[in-house]
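// run 5 | inverse folding | seed 20
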């Protein structure tokens, strides 16, 4: 029996000044003094999804949820899944295991208190996760993680190898710890082309990105995409960023994010693609999966 094609749209909800590329300009101790723009940026996403009549998964930063609780409630009220992006937006690879545990427990409790629903998914800032972190996530009640970005040229991405049983392309049972959902990367010989979203979505020509997505979803049967809320905010303040290429990576083509997202959804919908939340997608996996 042929499975329907699935598209998993996911959004990391964090403010524009919290990203790693701007960390030298906005250290954590100054965040409360920087004007927040996350509500308006996220509203653009919510309106776009409502227009297309699709649901998605929102990985919400605990720091944001503490200061914008109504935003979390609004996302949940639209029928989208709330998952965790941790609390303080510190790379897990820079935390001790105890600090990491405290971060993910604090974020999960806050989000569950705000929504009244279980929070079972996690994504690490900058995809910076290792195998020890997966075990801690499982111990703390998380059922799935989406922090594996197998693009070897990025300096911040973690490395998760030998993840055990593959339930389908890019989805791993991780030997009973937790289900891992990897971001897609297309390969042409030695050439790697990330097609999961983020800066790559804004950097590639739109037609090329959509062509690569069609290739991926036709082969794998599903497609997982991520974007940050701030990527929909073309009017965010511009600041000088020390470091080669960091400002370009942050600001490039922000005005094209929303129209390109509409074009991508418009391409996938006629293919008979089902737009699902991460948890809905997991429910369709084999019942004997290790992380059920």
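// decoded
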């Amino acid at each position: 029996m042929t499975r329907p094609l699935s598209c998993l749209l996911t959004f990391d909800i964090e403010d524009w000044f919290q990203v790693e590329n701007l960390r030298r300009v906005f250290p954590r101790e100054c965040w409360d003094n920087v004007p927040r723009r996350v509500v308006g940026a996220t509203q653009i996403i919510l309106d776009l999804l409502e227009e297309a009549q699709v649901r998605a998964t929102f990985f919400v930063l605990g720091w944001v949820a503490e200061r914008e609780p109504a935003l979390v409630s609004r996302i949940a009220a639209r029928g989208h899944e709330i998952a965790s992006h941790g609390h303080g937006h510190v790379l897990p690879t820079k935390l001790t295991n105890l600090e990491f545990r405290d971060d993910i427990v604090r974020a999960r409790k806050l989000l569950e208190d705000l929504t009244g629903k279980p929070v079972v998914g996690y994504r690490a800032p900058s995809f910076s996760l290792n195998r020890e972190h997966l075990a801690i996530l499982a111990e703390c009640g998380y059922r799935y993680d989406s922090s594996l970005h197998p693009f070897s040229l990025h300096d911040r991405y973690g490395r998760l190898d030998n993840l055990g049983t593959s339930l389908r392309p890019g989805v791993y049972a991780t030997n009973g710890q937790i289900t891992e959902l990897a971001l897609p990367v297309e390969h042409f010989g030695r050439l790697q082309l990330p097609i999961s979203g983020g800066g790559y979505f804004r950097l590639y020509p739109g037609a090329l990105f959509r062509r690569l997505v069609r290739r991926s979803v036709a082969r794998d049967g599903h497609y997982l995409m991520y974007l940050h809320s701030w990527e929909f905010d073309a009017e965010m303040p511009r600041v000088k960023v020390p470091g080669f290429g960091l400002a370009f990576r942050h600001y490039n083509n922000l005005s094209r994010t929303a129209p390109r997202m509409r074009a991508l959804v418009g391409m996938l919908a006629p293919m008979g693609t089902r737009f699902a939340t991460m948890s809905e997608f997991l429910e369709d996996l084999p019942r004997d999966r290790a992380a059920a």
